[in-house]
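Appendix B. Chain record.
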Amino acid sequence: MSQLREFITEKEHHRYRRDYPEYENLADEFKRLKLSPIERMTRRFELMLRLERPVLLPGEQICFLRTVKSLPDCFTKDEWESIRAKHHVHERGYISNLSPNYESAIKTGLLAKRENADEYGRRAIDAILALSDRYREEARRQGRRELESVLARVPRYGAENFREALQFFRILHFGLWMEGNYHNTVGRFDKYMYPYLKNDLERGILTEESAYGLLRDFFISFNKDSDLYSGIQQGDNGQSMVLGGIDEDGKEVFNLLSKMCLRASRELMLIDPKINLRVSRNTPLEIYELGSELTKAGLGFPQYSNDDVVIDGLVKEYGYEPKDAVNYVVAACWEFIIPHVGTDIVNIDALSFPKVIDVCLHRDLGGCSRFEDFMDAVKSEIQAKCDVMCENIKSIWFAPSPFMNLFIEGDLYQGAKYNNFGFHGTGIATAADSLAAIEKYVYEEKLVSKQELIEAVDSNFEEHRELLPILRYEAPKMGMNDNAADAKAVFLLEAFADSLKGKRNCRGGIYRAGTGSAMYYLWHADEIGASPDGRRRREPLGTNFSPSLFAGIKGPLSVIQSFTKPRLGKALNGGPLTLEFASSMFEGEDSIKKVAALVKAYIDMGGHQLQLNAVNTERMKDAQLHPENHRQLIVRIWGWSAYFVELDRDYQDHVIRRQQYSV
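Structure tokens predicted for this chain:
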């Protein structure tokens, strides 16, 4: 198994990839033939799978390797321009961030799915079955009898054992990427896959170690093609796996397979799949300790989600049915979605809290005799920004996905059961700290006039220089358990959530406010100059739901105290509190227990989501100078992990500058 991992990490499998320049302009041919969008997607899927060459890597037990290097677009540039002139097109215009029903397909087989599929779904199934048959023939040719036997059943028929179920998933996952969908998630893997493992163990077909060998191979499969998947940066591919949490009967799902997944992730040290742990007040400390062992490894996961807050918020604040809410998973990064029945678009836009403050600072501060008046102006501006964002998203359009549509209950095109849109909320600490500074130094202590503060901000603190160290290092900061700043964050998130309440989107769903930032922590920082909290021009915002980069934080406990004060169930699109720990902190004998206790404290205090990193600043700096020596160095960016040396410099620098804590 170590040989297979090395084969993949050394990129030896890339030699099997091929370009097909004769199909680069496939969209031109589709346009000439005046093909409908769904016909184009189906024909491309059929063509790409016909071009795939079966490759069985040495020693692998879970097969399917991408050999077609790139997918040609289905639409020409001028066709995209025409579509965008009439519709709102999200990101690339292809389906993303869904959690399809792997469970049902693996149980029944694709032939059963084919019986109720439309013409395009049947063609998609036929195409994937044809490729599977070619893999089966290659296995027979190479004398790989066990693999040949597996492919004789799946994906044509339902899986009968653990290996067949894993192989079935790999084929489905492969097909979704080949259709052009992206950020395809894994869902509640230990919930739907454990019965196969349990049955094999009870019947003596597998031992725990032989089952673990299959699982390791399965984990490696996520990394075979991930560099071909689209994203902001390498690693942003959305292969997110959820473990643990409660089921429909309120029983804990965490099981032997869950533990095996944590072990495989820790031992393989690969960036995929990205592990998410669902926990609650009732979760035993042992599970937190297992998660902390994985954090120690330095992969940037697991990410934790709090069932107590998330399920309650999805039901009471957003109207999800309890039976659906209890099965929530995370999308590519952290956004909460519902498997099988949800077609939410969870990252459709983002509100910049610092931009709101900047607008109000220049437009309203001079006319506000009381700080309360300024806060009213901020609330009105949040409402105005939300109104504009909602108004801008009309007549959403995306390319049809016949293969994905097979695994969504309802109609993917007209809308499934849930069709909600999610807005990120970025720079919460910068905005809260700015409000706290304005309240204290302009209105209460009158240390600076309104005009002087504006002049200082506009000059990047070249004017009124004496203000910079005061605002930057002495003013109240979110993360210090200081209500002067924390209360402003409560206010901002309440205003954000309330501004979206009652609004309906163009697909009949609602809008959800969130605490995530995604790539906006860099983009939104560039939209404004300096800010009243002492942040200078071009300095980035904190990632997700986290303190400012320069805040003088006392320690992680004060951070979680600050960041659990808002009613997080109202702003539940997702977005974790992100904490960085020096990797040296894990050298102590009791470090795992301390970190686990800290995570549990955050959950028990009502935190909604948490993500921890173990980082080594000096190693990252050396990796910038000598990338060839650090090819396997992994860091967390926002909702995903990546190989440090493959990131753009801006992202590398941001990780290096983040706060580091000890416990």
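Further analysis of this model is presented in Appendix C.
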